[in-house]
Amino acid sequence: MDALTIHRLHFAFTVTFHYIFPQLTMGLALLLVVLKTMALRTGNEHYNRAARFWARIFAINFAMGVVTGIPMEFQFGTNWARFSQAAGGVIGQTLAMEGVFSFFLESSFLGLFLFGEKKLGPKGHWLAGFLVFLGSWLSGFFIVATDAWMQHPVGYALGPHGEILLSSFWALLLNPWLLWQYLHNMTGAVVTGAFAMAAVGAFYLLVKRQEAYGQTFVRVGVIAGILSTILMLFPTGDAQGKNIAFHQPPTLAAMEGLFESAAGAPLALIGQPDVEKRRLDNPLQVPRALSFLTYQRWGAEVKGLASFPPDRWPDNIPLLYFSYHIMVGLGTIFIAVMAWAAIELWRGRLFARRKLLWLLMLAAPFPYIANTAGWITAEAGRQPWLIYGLMRTPEGVSPHVSAGNALFTLIGFMGMYAVLAMLFLFLVYREIEQGPEVA
Amino acid sequence: MPTIWFMLVAVMIAIYVVLDGFDLGAGIVQLLVARTDRERRLVLRSIGPVWDGNEVWLLAGGGTLYFAFPALYASSFSGFYLPLMMVLWLLILRGISIEFRNHIDSLVWKPFWDAVFGGASALLAIFFGAALGNVVRGVPLDSSNEFFLPLWTNFGLGRDVGILDWYTVLVAVTAFATLTVQGGLWVALKTDGGLAQRARQVALVGWWSLLPLTVVITWCSFAIQPRLSASFAARPWGYVFPLLAVAALIGMRALGRRDVAPFLCSSLYIVGMLTSAAFGLYPYVLPSNTDPALGLTVNNAAAAPYGLKVGLAWFIPGMLLAAGYFVYTYRSFAGKVALEDEGY
Fold first, then answer.
1. What is the model's pTM?
2. Which chain A residue has the Cα nearest residue B101?
3. Domain membership flag for residue A209
4. Do A109 and B64 touch (CB under 8 A)?
5. Tell me, what's the pLDDT at B142?
6. Count of CB atoms within 10 A of residue A25's CB?
7. What is the count of structural domains for chain B?
8. Is residue A242 within 8 Å of A294, Cβ to Cβ?
9. How far is the C-alpha of A337 from the C-alpha of A340, rounded, in Å?
10. H or E element: which one contains A165?
C-alpha cells in the first residue's frame, strides 16, 4: 500500500470509530433534556431516576467520544499537513470555535450535571443538562461547518502561493451546504438516540424487569423516533440530496449508479454498479423517479457519469453507491418500524406486543450503520477532491510521513480501539443489567 | 496581529499545562502516596469534575494554533508525527482510566486502571517536556519549512538529530519533576490527613530536584539556542518571565505552610518557565537547528490578516464565557473533596 492509501485509511478508520460515540451523545443529550423536563414538570422522581440512568450511559459514551475525538483534531496536521497549511486559515476558524464555544461549555457543565445534582437543585440541574445538550449540538455545528466548507468551499480567496485565504467569515458560517447537512446529521443523531432508548426499554419489558422504566423509555424513544425518522427523509434528506445534485452532479450520478444521462431518469432501488462496463447490473428501478425527486419534473434530464470527465468521478463508485443505498434503505425501514410502533403506542397496546418489542430491541445497531453509511456517502462522494473543486486528495497529504510510519500508527489505533470497543460494550451492558432502580 | 495571536496561543498552552499539569501530576502522585482504595478515590475525585475541562485547553489551544498559524500546525504536527500519535494514545488511556476505574469494584479492575492512569500521566509529562525541548532546540526544517524527526538517533545534538537527545531528555525530566510538584501540591490542597501529608512530602522531594534541574536546564538552553540570549539582550524587560519563575520557585517553599500559596507558586513557576521560552524564541515559533536563516516565525507561519482580525472578534467573548464556566465549576467544587458525595 502506498502512503496516500494508508493516510486515507487512517483518517477513515479513526473518524468512523469516533463517530459511533458523538451520534449517541448528541441524540441522547436531547432526550436527557426531555426526561429532565418531564421530571421538572411532573415533580415525579421516576423521571429523575430515568435521567440518571441515561446520564450514566451518556458519561461512558461521552468519555469515549472525547478520547477518540482528540486524535481527529490532531490528524489534520499529522497526516494532512499540506491540506492544513493551505486551508488552515479557513477551517481552523471553525475547529477553534468548536473548542472555544462548545467544548468548554460541554465539559464544564457535564461535570456539574454528573456530580452536582444535589448542589444545583432541580432547576439548576435541568439547566446543566440543557447546556450539555447545547454544547454538544454546537460542537456538531462547527464540525459540520468544517466539512461543509470542504464539500462546498465558500468565502475564500486564493493567495499568491496558492494558499486559501478566508475572505468572509459569515459566508463560512452561512454556507448554503451547511444548514441542511447539519440538520440532516443532527436528526440522524436523534434517530440513534431514540432507537437506543426504545431498545433498552423494549429489553426491560421483554425480560419483565424495571418495567415502569421500560415503558417510559419505549414511549420517549418511539415518539422521538417517529419524528426524527420522518425529518430524516423530509425535508433534511431531500434538501441535502438537492445540494449534491446542484453542486456535485458527478457525485449524484455515482450515488444513483447512473452512467448515461437520461431524460426521465429512473431511481435505482437495488443493483450493482459495474464501473468498467459503465452499467448497473440486476437493476430494480422506479421509472422517472430520480428526475422527479431531483427537479420535481418527471421528464427532467439528469446527467449521468458519462457526461463528466472521468478524472472528476468519485474514485470509489461502488462504495459510494452502496453506502448511499444502505443509508436510504435503512432510513425507509426506520420510518416503517417507528410508524408501526407509534400507532400501537397511540392505541395503548405497544407494551404488550412482544414481537414489536423484539423488533425495537434488535433495531438498535442499525441507526449506527445508517449514520456511518451516510457519512461515507458524503466523504466518498467528495472524492476525488479534498476540498471540492480546489484541492485533490493526494495534494493534501503530509509528504514526509512515510507509509511505514503511518501504517505503524494505524495498526496502533486499530489495536487501541478494539480494546476500547470491548470495554465500552462491557460497561454499557453492565449499566443496562443494573438498571435505573439502583442509584 | 500575528504577535497578539502568538501571545494568546502561548497563554492558552500555559493555562493548559498549569491545569492539566495538576491532573497529570495527581496521576503520578497517586501511585506514590495513595495507599488504600479510599485514598485513590479521593485523588480521583479531586480531579474528576475538572480534568476533562482542563484537557479542553489543549484542544482549544490546538484549534487556535491551527487557524492562527496553519503553517506551524502543519509542519510541527507532521514532523513530530510519532511522538504526537503516542501522546494521543496516552491521552486516550489517561481519560478512560479515570472514567472507567470506579465502574467495577474489583481487586483486579481498580489496580489495573490505577496503574494505567499513573503510567499514562507520567509518560505524558515526559512527552510534553520533550516536545518543549524540541521547540527550543529547533528542528531540521527544509526549504519549504517541513521536516520529519525519528524518535531518537544517537541522542546527540548533531545534524542527524532525533526527538530524544540528551537535551530534550533533560527537559522531559524537568517537566516530570515540575508536574509531580504541581500534582503533589494539588492533592495536598484538596485532601487532608495522611494522604495530604504524603503528597506534600512528594512535592518537597520534587521541589529539591527542581532546584538543580532549573539551573541546569536554563544554562543548557542558553548554550544550545543562541536566540534566547539575543532576545533577552534586545528586550531586557523580558527578564520578568525568568524572574517570575525563580520567585515562584522560592515562593513554593518560603510562603508558609498553607497549601494554596505553594500551589499557586508552582503554577506561576510553570507559567514563568513557559513564557520565558516563548519570549526567548520570539519571533520564532519553530526555529531550525541546522540553518539559522530558516525557521518558522510568527509572520511566515501566520494566517492571512482578515482571518486573524475576525478571529479576535469571536475569540475574546468566547474565552470570557469559557473563563466564566471555569470560575463557576471550580467554585462549585471548591474545598476538600469528600467521598460521601454523589457521582461516581
1. 0.93
2. A427
3. yes
4. no
5. 86
6. 26
7. 1
8. yes
9. 5
10. strand A164-166
Between A84, A115, A116, which is nearest B70 by CB?
A84
What domain range is A341 assigned to? 186-260+305-395
Q: Give CA–CA dist A77/A99, Å, rounded.
A: 16
Q: Which of A72, A386, A400, A411 to mutate to test the interface with B (most CBs of B within 10 A)?
A: A400
B85 touching chain A per CB within 8 A: yes
Contacts of B174 (CB under 8 A, 6+ apart): B129, B210, B213, B214, B217
Please tell me the distance from the alpha carbon of residue B220 to that of residue B168, in angstroms, as a whole number.
Answer: 10
- From chain A, the residues in CB contact with B102 under 8 A are none
Q: Does B95 touch chain A (CB under 8 A)?
A: yes
Pairing mode, if any, of strands A164-166 and B295-297?
unpaired
**CB of B91 within 8 Å of any CB in chain A?**
yes
Residue B265 lies in a domain: no
Is residue A122 a part of any domain in this protein? no
Interface predicted TM-score (ipTM) of this complex, two decimals? 0.90
Contact B332 A90 (CB under 8 A): no
Find which of A61, A84, A108, A114 to mutate to test the B interface (most B CBs within 10 Å of its CB). A108
Query: Cβ separation of A85 and B341 shorter than 8 Å?
Result: no
Residue B42, domain member (yes or no):
yes
A355-365: per-residue pLDDT in tens?
Answer: 999 999 999 99
CA distance B36 to B135: 40
pLDDT tens sequence across A198-247: 999 999 999 999 999 999 999 999 999 999 999 999 899 999 999 999 99
Which residues touch A75 (CB under 8 Å, ≥6 apart)? Answer: A10, A11, A14
The residue type of A258 is L
Structural domains counted in chain A? 1
Contacts of A397 (CB under 8 A, 6+ apart): A3, A4, A7, A79, A80, A81, A82, A83
Q: What is the 3-state secondary structure (H, E, C) of A12-36?
A: HHHHHHHHHHHHHHHHHHHHHHHHH
Asked whether the bond before B283 is cis by omega within 30 degrees of 0, the reply is yes
Residue B76 located in a structural domain:
yes
Q: Across the interface, do A116 and B332 touch by the CB < 8 Å criterion?
A: yes
Q: Which of A70, A76, A85 sits opposite B71 (nearest CB)?
A: A85
Contact in structure between A410 and A13 (CB atoms under 8 Å): yes
B260 within a domain of the structure (yes/no): no
pLDDT class of A139 with cuts at 50, 70, 90 = very high
Give every CB contact of residue B258 below 8 A, 6+ residues apart in sequence. none
Contacts A399 to B, Cβ<8 Å: 146
Q: A84, A142, A165: which to substitute to probe chain B, counting the most B Cβ within 10 Å?
A: A84
On whether residue A223 sits in a domain, the answer given is yes
Which among B73, B304, B310 has CB closest to A84?
B73
Helices of type H across A296-385:
317-346, 354-362, 365-382
Any domain includes A131: no
Between chains, do A111 and B311 touch, taking CB under 8 Å as contact? no
Note down the domain range covering B314.
2-211+282-332
Residues of A with Cβ-Cβ distance to B70 under 8 angstroms? 84-89, 92
pLDDT (tens digit per residue) in A384-422: 999 999 999 999 999 999 999 999 999 999 999 999 999
Closest residue in B to A103 (Cα–Cα): B56
Q: CB-based contact (8 Å) between B319 and chain A? A: yes
- C-beta atoms of B104 and A430 within 8 A: yes
pLDDT tens track for B35-76: 888 889 999 988 887 888 889 999 999 999 999 999 999 999
What 3-state class would DSSP assign to B303?
coil
Contact flag A110-B52 (C-beta cutoff 8 Å): yes
